[in-house]
Amino acid sequence: MELFNNRVMQVLQKALDGATARHQAIAHNMANINTSGYKKLEVNFQNQLKAAVDKSSASLTTTHSRHISNKPSIKDVQPETTRSTATSMRPDGNNVDIDQEMTKMAANIFYFNSAVSQLNKRISLLKHIISEGRR
């Protein structure tokens, strides 16, 4: 059904998927704060999502699902989890900074809540339309 599977709903779904993956990675990092040799996990998805949504860049118009496009599809956006091995915060090789992880967690919670808020507004609007505005 097009009401629940439009472009905006797909973007919100991918944003929530990415924020969930990021939250899990941050929680994993915080749980391993005292594990010697542990290297922190990082999740990247916002640049991919932005590239899939960005209309300012020139893109090829496709009229069939098998046509070649130079723009990534929203459906193809997946959170990428990588292990950061570049730095080491402590002599035991662990590179997790609890202050940095707490800051990332707070920012991610804000991001997640704003996406949920937008999703709730869209669903509320659809409910209003379905009920024809009567109460």
Summarize this entry quickly:
The chain has helices at 7-31, 46-53, 98-130, and strands at 41-44, 80-83.
What can you see in these coordinates?
With 135 residues, the protein is mostly helical. It is 49% helix and 6% strand. The chain contains three helices and two strands, in the order αβαβα. The chain has helices at residues 7-31, 46-53, 98-130; strands at residues 41-44, 80-83. It has a two-stranded antiparallel sheet. α1 (7-31) packs antiparallel against α3. The two termini are 25 Å apart.
- Evaluate the radius of gyration: 19 Å
Neighbour order of strands in the largest sheet: 1-2
- Total helical segments: 3
Average pLDDT number = 83
How helical, in percent, are the residues? 40-55%
Number of strands: 2
Q: Secondary-structure blueprint of this entry?
A:
Blueprint: H1 7-31, E1 41-44, H2 46-53, E2 80-83, H3 98-130
Antiparallel strand pairs: 1-2
Helix pairs in contact: 1-3
Short key terms for the protein model shown above:
135 residues; mainly alpha; single chain
